[in-house]
Design brief:
By secondary structure, this protein is an alpha/beta fold. It has helices at residues 16-27, 45-48, 62-72, 91-99, 118-134, 147-153, 163-173, 190-195, 197-212, 217-220; strands at 3-9, 32-38, 54-57, 77-80, 85-86, 104-114, 144-146, 177-188.
Length: 225
């Protein structure tokens, strides 16, 4: 399988090359296409990024950016990676194995947060428990899809937040299988640290619950600043 890795970015000038270096290290000799999709044209992220990647711009918004990347991709598999998330060793072989028998059209990795903070470790534990029991991973767990299946789903809904939860909800509602790779994708703790760990954790929990209860993402987006 040829895998296209789509990375939505927004003012990531200082972080993009470490992200790309880690990705290429994990890839080894895998047949990989890397697509950066910048939601802040002119910000300098695409200019700062090294070579060997496809660079495109799209309107701001993670869903819009990821859909634009998917449209440009030529791979059999689409893997959506946050710029602050690092894939585990052997990730691409694991993705191929997870999709090999055709029973699953989508999947994600287990979550690890790059921290020793006990509260964040608890958040990591609950996220993995939710993923295991309910098959409801979130976007920082590096979603992957067979491209054909992603297109059949209609891609991500054009909503300002919760696009990751929304697409997983659609898959589950339709009876689709979501594969979960046991090796963890490791995400940075930077957003929790910036906003305050307790505040961010409670806000995220409240927003996620309200979204599942039917509150529109457009109304919930105001709490994300």
């Amino acid at each position: 399988m040829k895998i296209s890795v789509i990375i939505p970015v927004y003012h990531e000038e200082g972080n993009i090359n470490p992200c790309l270096d880690a990705l290429k290290h994990v890839a080894g000799g895998a047949d990989l296409e890397i697509i950066l999709v910048d939601g802040a044209p002119g910000s300098g992220t695409l200019m700062a990024a090294g070579g060997g990647v496809i660079k495109i711009s799209a309107p701001k918004g993670r869903a819009k950016q990821m859909n634009a990347g998917a449209k440009a991709a030529v791979g059999d598999v689409l893997l959506f990676l946050h710029a602050d998330t690092v894939l585990p060793a052997g990730a691409f072989g694991a993705v191929e194995r997870a999709l090999a028998d055709g029973s699953a059209g989508a999947g994600a990795f287990r979550l690890a947060i790059d921290t020793k903070n006990p509260l964040l470790k608890f958040i990591q534990f609950t996220a993995n428990l939710r993923t295991k029991v309910f098959r409801m991973p979130y976007g920082d767990q590096a979603f992957f899809f067979r491209k054909k299946y992603f297109e059949e789903l209609g891609g991500y809904r054009n909503i300002p937040i919760m696009e990751d939860a929304e697409i997983m909800k659609r898959i589950r509602k339709s009876g689709g299988k979501i594969a979960v790779i046991d090796a963890p994708a490791t995400t940075s703790a930077r957003r929790w640290q910036k906003e305050g760990i307790l505040y961010a954790a409670l806000r995220n929990k409240a927003v996620g619950t309200l979204f599942r209860l039917g509150v529109p993402a457009e109304k919930l987006a105001r709490y994300y600043g």
